[in-house]
Amino acid sequence: MTETAPRRVLLDCDPGTDDALALWLALAAPEIALELVTVAGGNVGLAHTLRNARAVLGLAGARVPVVAGADRPLLGRYQAETRVHGQDGLAGV
User: Fold this and answer.
1) Residues 36/69, Cβ–Cβ less than 8 Å
2) Axis crossing angle, helix 46-60 with helix 17-28, rounded to the nearest 10
3) Where in the numbering of this chain does the Inosine/uridine-preferring nucleoside hydrolase domain appear (predicted)?
């Protein structure tokens, strides 16, 4: 059986609890080489999503760069939805 190299992946997300799980799954998948994570504001602001991505990767012991992206939508006004994933996006975990 021929083994193929893991697919190099850039993951763009807005880490609340759902994207924290996506990061864990990407790190655990042998067919994925997570090369870079970019984050944007989502249910919570950019400062929280940036911290959340770095926290998840740090807990996993992964040395993957995390880069901040947009802090607001291209159109319209940004409004945090803290009732979805809590004040910090990770439900205080």
Assistant:
1) no
2) 30
3) 9-92
pLDDT for the residue 52: 97
Q: How far apart are CA 22 and CA 10, in angstroms?
A: 12
Query: pTM for the whole thing?
Result: 0.89
- By C-alpha distance, which of 71, 49, 53 is closest to 62? 53
Q: In angstroms, rounded to a whole number, what is the distance separating the alpha carbons of residues 54 and 62?
A: 9
Q: Residue 78 is which amino acid? A: Y
Q: Hey, where are the domains in the chain?
A: 7-72
* Sign of the alpha-carbon dihedral angle for 11, 15, 20, 21: negative
Instruction: Quote the DSSP letter at residue 90.
Output: S
Beta bridge partners of 36: 10
Q: Give the bridge partners for 17, in sequence order.
A: none
